[in-house]
Specification:
By secondary structure, the protein is mainly alpha-helical. The chain is about 65% helix and about 0% strand. It is globular and about 60 Å long.
């Protein structure tokens, strides 16, 4: 069964509504063998920010709907979806997330719906923050938005504006923009950014730096990420984040020798 089918079939167990609920509706409206009544069990008017108990399958469903909707908004930020952006999203679905044909058809419907709906990318981001408490998954979304923006080797003003503004809507610190921009430009973060990645300052003691590093390393451990509802194929993005954390820690400690 597809990840969307598993999540909806089990019942999301929460009142969604809003842009993410509309994305789920786009899939149900084009999916064979799924009644519209299924969606109505998981939606209600005016309750787009409701948060209730949610299993891993449901969390994964919500994540993918939010992800592909926001990817669509980013791809369209410069006025059109380029072939490079489309190729990246197809590669992500098939090779990184290991989606089967049914999953990819569902994600394509969600993507297409978001290209033409009246919601902004910030609407999707704000609702996703209301639904999920996972900081790691929100970081993953932001990293993927950067990847789409740089897919055609150019950062257009509309894309750059979104990348600057959306951390606040995703509940992320604004420093993530500069950190990831330097990474995607192929440059190494300077020492100040290494401190920002670890969440400490140059006045922090070695003990505080080590404690911050250990905390981040635990958060990005594969078992920890897996428990948040991410599929196995998505671990590569957690590995990139862990690589960045290791580099930052090495740079800070080397500077203190």
């Amino acid at each position: 069964m597809s990840w969307l089918g598993a999540g909806i079939g089990a019942g999301i167990g929460m009142v969604i509504g809003g842009p993410i609920g509309a994305g789920i509706g786009a899939w149900i409206g084009h999916s064979m063998g799924k009644a519209r009544a299924v969606m109505q069990q998981g939606m209600g008017p005016g309750m787009g920010g409701a948060r209730t108990m949610m299993g891993q399958k449901e969390a994964q469903t919500i994540f993918f709907v939010a992800l592909f909707s926001m990817l669509a908004k980013m791809a369209k930020a410069d006025g059109k979806v380029t072939s490079e952006e489309a190729d990246f999203i197809n590669h992500l679905a098939k090779n990184q997330l290991n989606m089967d044909a049914e999953d990819r058809r569902a994600s394509a419907e969600i993507f297409k719906n978001a290209l033409n709906d009246s919601y902004s990318i910030y609407d999707y981001a704000k609702q996703y923050v209301q639904i999920t408490q996972s900081h790691q998954m929100r970081e993953m979304v932001y990293r993927l938005l950067f990847t789409v923006a740089y897919a055609d080797k150019q950062l257009h003003p509309g894309e750059d504006e979104i990348l600057k503004k959306i951390p606040a809507h995703l509940g992320l610190d604004g420093s993530y923009y500069n950190i990831l921009k330097e990474e995607f430009k192929g440059q190494h973060a300077d020492l100040g950014e290494s401190y920002e990645i670890l969440g400490v300052s140059q006045d922090s003691s070695d003990t505080e730096v080590k404690r911050a590093y250990r905390k981040l390393a635990m958060e990005y451990h594969p078992d920890k990420i897996g428990s948040k509802g991410l599929p196995d194929g998505f671990m590569k993005y957690a590995e990139k984040q862990m690589h960045q954390i290791n580099e930052a820690y090495g740079a800070v400690m080397d500077s203190r020798k």
